[in-house]
Amino acid sequence: MLGNFTFYNPVKLHFGKDALNFLHGELLQYGPRVLLCYGGGSIKRNGIYDKVMQVLRDAGKTVVEDPGVMPNPTIGKLREGARLARENDVDLILAVGGGSVIDYAKGVSASAWCEEDPWQKYYLRQEEPSCRTIPVGSVLTMVGTGSEMNGGSVITNPETHQKIGKVFQPGMMPRFSILNPEFTFSLPKWQMAAGMFDIMSHLLEQYLSGTDDNTSDYIGEGLMRSLVHASRIASANPLDYEARSNIMWTATMALNTMTKMGKSQDWMVHMIGQSIGAFTNATHGMTLSAVSGAYYRHILPYGVEKFARFARNVWEIRPEGKTQEELALQGIEALESWMDEIGVVRHISEIGVTEEMIGDIAANAIITTGGYKTLSTDDIVKILHDSL
Ligand code: NZQ
Ligand code: ZN
Questions:
Q1: Is the CB–ligand 1 distance for residue 97 below 6 Å?
Q2: What Rg, from alpha-carbon coordinates, does the chain have?
Q3: How far apart are CA 245 and CA 19, in angstroms?
Q4: CA distance 265 to 303
Q5: What sections of the chain are H helices per DSSP?
Q6: For residue 1, how far is its CA from the centre of ligand 1 (angstroms)?
Q7: CATH fold for domain 12-183
Q8: Domain 188-387 has CATH 1.20.1090.10
Q9: How far is the CA of 303 from the centre of ligand 1 (A)?
Q10: What parts of the chain have a pLDDT lower than 50?
C-alpha cells in the first residue's frame, strides 16, 4: 500500500540538443544581474562557457562570475559565494556544471540574505530559509545527482570532517534546468562511470526498503533496467547520443522525488559514502560503489524477498530451482559484475581509505532508519572493513 504523500516538483526542464535555445526566454523573466557559478574550468575547455555567455549578453545581463566551485563544495566557498551574491544584489543565480555547482548555487541562494551562519542553520540544524532567497537556474554538464530537479544541497565542512545534505523545500529547487546530453560528452570516463553508479544508488536507496506493493518500486525497476541497458552502450561508445540521453533523463527521474513517493527509503549507502567523502574528498559516485557490495550483503538477510525481486525484475535472473536467499544473493552479484563492467571502484582502499580511518568514518556517518536494518556504528565498522 502506498502511504500518504504530497508530490510537488516545480522545476521546468528543457531537454535535448536544442535545450540551450530556451535559456534566453528563461533569463528574460529575471532582473539584470546574474551570478554565474561554475567549477574548475571544464566549461571553458568544452565551449559551454562561451555559449552561455553569448546568451547572457544577448539577454542584456550584467554577469558576476563565481568560478572555482570544487567537486564536493565546501562551506568556506559557500560563504564567499553568499557574500558575492549579496554585494552585487543579483537577481538570478545561474549554475553551469554538475551536482556540485547546482548544490552550491542552492546554498548560496539560501545564504546570501541570511544573517545566520549557513552551516549551522541549514546543514546542522536542517532549517528552511527565513530570509529572502534568490532564484536559481541550471545548465547541467554532469549526469548523476539529480540536483537539476531536486532541492538537495550537499556541502562539506573539511574542518570537522562532515559532509551533510540539506534537502530544501520545493521552492528552493531550480526554477529551470537546461539538459543537453551533448554537454556531457566531454566528461572523463571516471566521472561518467561515477555518475552512472550514483543513479543506480539513488534508485536502490529508494527501492531496497519496505515490503509494500507500490507503483513507486515498479517505476524504480524500469529506471534501473533502462540505466543498465544504456550504460552498456555508453561504456562501449561514450558518444552514443541515444544512450547518453537516456542516462541523463534516468538520472533526473531517479532523484526528483518521484520514486520515493508513498514508501520508506534507506539512504545508508549515501550516509557512509558521504562520511568517506568528508575524510577523503573522493568522487561521490565512487564512495557509493566502494561500499555497496559489502553493505547489501550485510543487510540481505533482513530483506531477502525484495532482494530476490531485484534479481528477478532488474537482472532477469530465473528463479527456478533456487531458494529466495540464493536468488537474492545472485541479484547482488549481478549488481557487482555490472559495477565492474562500467568501471567503478569496489574497495574503499582505492579511494584513499586506510584501516586506521575506519573508526572515525563510522563515527561520523549519520544513521538513517528506513532500511531493512538500522545499523549500529559497529555494523558500519564491519561494512567498512569488508569494503577495504
Ligand atoms: O569543476 P569542473 O572543471 O567543471 O570539472 C567537473 C568536476 O571535476 C567535471 N565535469 C563536470 N561536467 C563536465 C566535467 N568535465 C568535463 N566535461 C563536462 N561536461 O566533473 C567533476 C565532477 O563534477 P561534480 O559536479 O562534482 O559531480 P557530480 O554531479 O557528481 O556532483 C557531486 C556532488 O553532488 C552531491 C555529492 O555529494 C557531491 O558533493 N550530491 C547531490 C545530491 C542532490 N543534490 O540531490 C545527491 C547526490 O547523492 C550527491 O550527494
Ligand atoms: Zn548520490
A1: yes
A2: 20
A3: 12
A4: 13
A5: 23-27, 42-45, 48-58, 75-87, 99-111, 118, 189-207, 215-236, 241-254, 268-280, 284-299, 304-313, 324-342, 358-364, 377-387
A6: 36
A7: Rossmann fold (3.40.50)
A8: yes
A9: 32
A10: none
